[in-house]
From TrEMBL:
Database matches in Gene3D superfamilies: Alanine racemase (3.20.20.10)
A Pfam family of this chain: Ala_racemase_N
Described purpose of this protein according to its UniProt entry: Pyridoxal 5'-phosphate (PLP)-binding protein, which is involved in PLP homeostasis.
Family designation: Belongs to the pyridoxal phosphate-binding protein YggS/PROSC family.
UniProt xrefs under NCBIfam families: YggS family pyridoxal phosphate-dependent enzyme
Name the record gives this protein: Pyridoxal phosphate homeostasis protein
Modification sites for N6-(pyridoxal phosphate)lysine: 35
Keyword field: Pyridoxal phosphate
Ranges for domain Alanine racemase N-terminal: 28-222
Length: 223
């Protein structure tokens, strides 16, 4: 199916999820995750009116960026090795995977201006998942005050890859509750108003639980 058609379907289901909980759909930004698809398919997404694109590897980002340049707003959503920061830092507007101080230090050093970051949280507790443990998030964010180029705009998580709605909802709720706690600290370098959560299988639930950025690959641009 054309990206344009898939995007229409997704926008409709986002509106439905927002209606369920009395939210304004304009609060939700769709990031098309292009990591599985060709440059042409990523271009199709941009032509369909999608502004935000996400990649999870520095090679993939560089390849797509070399073709599409600064037209789209780029998001880095994958695990980031410190030595790769220099390859992506001038290309992306958002980093969703800040999960350790050594990475913060490298981003801070390489960025030419403050960059919007999400702190990745391992809410599900799966050992395969990256991210800060929920009980360590506050302390981690306090420690980020020494890195002026890091602006903590929110928290990010990846829910477990399952269909159990109760477990998914619980995971998103827990992230929302930590986000609220951080936002209430009113730190100038960590407004933490945003929630990056929800993928192809669970974005409607994530939106019902407060997501402001959804990262959609398979359902939007394909595998
Ligand atoms: C691949 C990926 C996505 C998109 O996954 P889909 O299930 O294809 O929508 C979202 N977030 C991250 C971090 C990813 O790596």
């Amino acid at each position: 199916m054309e990206v344009r058609k898939k995007y229409e379907l997704i926008k409709t289901s986002i509106e439905e999820a927002c209606r369920n909980v009395n939210r304004n759909p304009e609060e939700v930004t769709v990031i098309a995750v292009t990591k599985y698809v060709s440059i042409d398919r990523a271009k199709e997404a941009v032509e369909a009116g999608i502004i935000h694109l996400g990649e999870n590897r520095d090679e993939g980002l560089t390849t797509k960026w070399n073709s599409l340049g600064d037209g789209p707003v780029w998001h880095f959503i994958g695990t980031l090795q410190s030595r790769k920061v220099k390859n992506i830092i001038d290309k992306v507007s958002y980093i969703h995977s800040l999960d350790r101080l050594s990475l913060a230090k490298e981003i801070n050093k390489r960025a030419k201006a403050p960059i919007k970051c999400f702190v990745q949280v391992n809410v599900s507790g799966e050992s395969s998942k990256h991210g800060i443990e929920p009980e360590e998030v506050i302390e981690f964010i306090k420690n980020l005050k020494n890195y002026p180029n890091i602006q903590v705009i929110g928290l990010m998580t990846m829910a477990p890859h399952i269909d159990n709605e109760t477990i998914l909802r619980d995971c998103f709720r827990r992230l929302k509750s930590i986000q609220t706690e951080v936002a209430n600290m009113k730190l100038d370098y960590a407004p933490c108003t945003e929630l990056s959560m929800g993928m192809s299988n669970d974005y409607q639930i994530a939106i019902e639980e407060g997501a402001t950025f959804v990262r959609i690959g398979t359902a939007l641009v394909g595998e």
